[in-house]
């Protein structure tokens, strides 16, 4: 009888672990819906800047049927070359895949320059930081279509602007709203990460077998990165792009599905009492429970029997962590 009880407990734990992993895999790591007043400079809302030039501004947002980031808040207008590039960090992802999705509407022709890139999160020296690597991998471009004034070709490079690859058979229509998804694959080893780009005119719950562009890998000189930030860049006079509904995750499901639109829904309810300082998280429990700490990829990082009252758990690295204790679940960002 005791053997049966143990097996049942083991099965329940296994099922709970799979369920917890599934929740984490379907949860975005970071989102931005630009829920700020129209006309506000984006630098007022946590976005980083490079110099004293004017900031990009909040504008009316975009919609896309079925997309989790559709119709929430406003958007960001990317225009004119003398505007500040808009950067934002997110929890560093150091293994597996990074998916970044956002709605985009092109309202003018472009001049073969990139307007989006992933980033390692370190501010370069020329922007007031200390980093000299200039690690902007996964660049998205736009250029005028040679056959139609009302259409654009979309481009992608890993790092080198001279190696950008452009679409030829699927131009986008100026004024239409699309869903762009860039996938960054972290491959073990040096200088072999890959990027791919997807362009959607309707929602697709499953990752397409073939991307629009890629996978590409061309960065033998600058090296790979662990993505920890993104940047939107105004590059030339006359540029006019609106972006909205940014979602970052480690699976296709985590960024696309409306059912994964927030960590604080019923699946991860944030009823745990969690506090933090610079080196620890503190979890208050009403009774003894097993505390489990997971990384953003669902990997169990720490497990301990929690006591009634306050439990201190040291955290060594910055990032987003998911916490379970009994039936309760929560998150904490360092």
From TrEMBL:
Alphabetized, the UniProt keywords read: Signal
What's the name of the protein?
T9SS C-terminal target domain-containing protein
Q: Which domain of life is it from?
A: Bacteria
**Organism of derivation:** Coprobacter fastidiosus
Please verify whether the record's keywords include Signal. Answer: yes
Residues spanning the signal sequence: 1-25
- Lineage of the native species? Bacteria, Pseudomonadati, Bacteroidota, Bacteroidia, Bacteroidales
């Amino acid at each position: 009888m005791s053997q049966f009880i143990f097996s049942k407990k083991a099965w329940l734990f296994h099922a709970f672990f799979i369920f917890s992993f599934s929740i984490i895999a379907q949860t975005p790591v970071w989102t931005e819906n630009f829920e700020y007043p129209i006309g506000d400079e984006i630098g007022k809302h946590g976005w980083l800047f490079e110099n004293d030039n004017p900031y990009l501004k909040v504008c009316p947002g975009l919609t896309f049927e079925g997309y989790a980031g559709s119709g929430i808040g406003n958007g960001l207008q990317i225009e004119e070359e003398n505007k500040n590039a808009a950067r934002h960090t997110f929890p560093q992802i150091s293994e597996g895949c990074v998916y970044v999705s956002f709605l985009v509407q092109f309202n003018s022709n472009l001049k073969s320059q990139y307007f989006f890139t992933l980033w390692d999160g370190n501010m370069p020296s020329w922007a007031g930081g200390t980093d000299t690597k200039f690690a902007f991998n996964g660049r998205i471009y736009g250029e005028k279509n040679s056959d139609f004034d009302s259409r654009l070709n979309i481009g992608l490079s890993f790092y080198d602007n001279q190696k950008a690859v452009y679409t030829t058979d699927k131009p986008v229509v100026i004024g239409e709203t699309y869903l762009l998804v860039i996938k960054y694959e972290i491959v073990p080893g040096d200088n072999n990460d890959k990027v791919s780009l997807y362009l959607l005119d309707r929602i697709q719950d499953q990752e397409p077998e073939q991307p629009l562009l890629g996978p590409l890998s061309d960065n033998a000189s600058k090296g790979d990165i662990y993505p920890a930030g993104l940047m939107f860049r105004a590059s030339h006079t006359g540029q006019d792009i609106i972006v909205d509904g940014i979602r970052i995750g480690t699976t296709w499901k985590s960024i696309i599905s409306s059912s994964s639109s927030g960590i604080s829904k019923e699946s991860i309810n944030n009823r745990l009492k969690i506090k933090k300082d610079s080196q620890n998280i503190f979890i208050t429990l009403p009774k003894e429970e097993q505390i489990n700490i997971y990384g953003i990829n669902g990997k169990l990082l720490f497990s301990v029997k929690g006591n009634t009252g306050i439990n201190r758990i040291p955290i060594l690295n910055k990032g987003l962590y998911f916490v379970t204790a009994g039936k309760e679940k929560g998150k904490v960002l360092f």
